[in-house]
Amino acid sequence: MAKVHMLNIGQGDSFLVETENGAQMLIDGGRDATVLSELSKVMDFGDKNIDVVIATHPDADHIGGLVDVINRYKVGLFLTSDVYSDTDLYKSLLKSLKDKKVPSYFVRAGMKFELNTKKSESFSILFPDRDTHNFETNTASVVGRLQLGKRSILFTGDSPISIEKYLVNKNSKDLDVDILKLGHHGSKTSTSNEYLRATSPDLALISAGVNNTYGHPNKEVLNLLKSFNIPYISTQISGTVTLETDGIKWYRK
Fold first, then answer.
1. Strands lying side by side in the sheet with 241-245
2. Of the candidates 1, 116, 141, which has an alpha carbon nearest to the alpha carbon of residue 51?
3. How big is the chain by its Cα radius of gyration, in Å?
4. Under a CB-based contact definition with an 8 Å cutoff, are residues 30 and 61 in contact?
5. 208 by DSSP, 3-state: which?
6. I want to staple 156 with a disulfide (CB 3.0 to 4.6 A). Which of 13, 115, 183, 249 is the partner?
7. Best CA proximity match to 55, nearest among 64, 63, 47, 46
C-alpha cells in the first residue's frame, strides 16, 4: 500500500509520501524541527533516507524544518521553485544542501518524477511553467500532481487564486484529482469556485495550526467546500493524518 501522511507540524505544511516500493518524498517541512518528531512517528525506526524533498516555496512555514531534515536524513534529491528569497533561513537551507552535496534543481511544468514505475506512482509538475525568480513567493509555489495507480492528489503549496485560474484555463484536465490539498492552509486567498469545479475532489486536506493568528482555515472557504459537498480533514482537528491506497481505493488509517 502507498501512504500519504499529512504531518501535524502546526501552522505550515509538511507531507510525507511513501510509495508501495518504499520510495519516500517529503513535500515541505513546516516551520521548525517539529517535522523530525513527526517523521519519526510514521517512518520505520532507523530509516534515515528520504529520496526526494520538495520545497514548494521559500516561506518559513514551509522550509523552516527542512534544514533539520537535510542535516538528519540522507536526501537523494531536492526540488523547488526558482523564486528568490533573501532570508537567513533560505540561505541556511541552501548552505545545508551544498554542505551535504544534495543534488538540487529548480522545477518546471512538464517534469515528471517516477517514484515507482511498476505501479505507475509519480509526481508531475504543473507549475511554475516559467522563470519565477522575481515572483511573490506564494505565487511561485510548486503545484504538483501525485499519481498513485489510479488515485491522485493535487499539492498546491500556497498558490493563490490567480494561479488557480491560470491553471484551469491552461489545462483543466490535469487538475481533476481525488484529493485536493487546499492552498495556503485554507486561506481565502486560495480555493476558488473554478478551481473546485476543475479539481472536483472527493476530499480536501487542510494543514494549519490550532488557534493560529491567521484565522486558517477561512470560514468562507469551508462554506465553499460545503456548497460543493466536499468533506475535509484538518490537522487542527485530527493531528497527523495517514491515507493509504492500493491504487484503486483510498483508506484512512
1. 104-106, 74-80, 49-55, 24-27, 15-18, 2-6, 241-245, 250-252
2. 116
3. 17
4. yes
5. coil
6. 183
7. 63
Q: How far apart are CA 240 and CA 59, in angstroms?
A: 21
Residue 112, judged by CB atoms within 10 A of its CB (0-12, 13-18, 19+), counts as exposed
- Helix or strand run (H / E) with residue 66: helix 66-72
- The b/e string for 72-90 (b: 16+ C-beta within 10 A; e otherwise) is ebebeebbbbbbebeeebb
Nine cell digits for residue 19? 510509495
Angle among Cα 154, 160, 161 to the nearest 5 degrees reads 95
The pLDDT tens digits of the residues spanning 64-117 come to 999 999 999 999 999 999 999 999 999 999 999 999 999 999 999 999 999 988
Task: Output DSSP code: residue 222.
Answer: H
Three-class SS state of 71: helix
Question: pLDDT tens, 120-149?
Answer: 999 999 999 999 999 999 999 999 999 999
DSSP string, 109-172: TT-EEEEEGGGTEEEEEEE--S--TTS-TGGG--EEEEEETTEEEEE-TT--HHHHHHHHHHHG
With cell 531536492, the residue in question is: 78
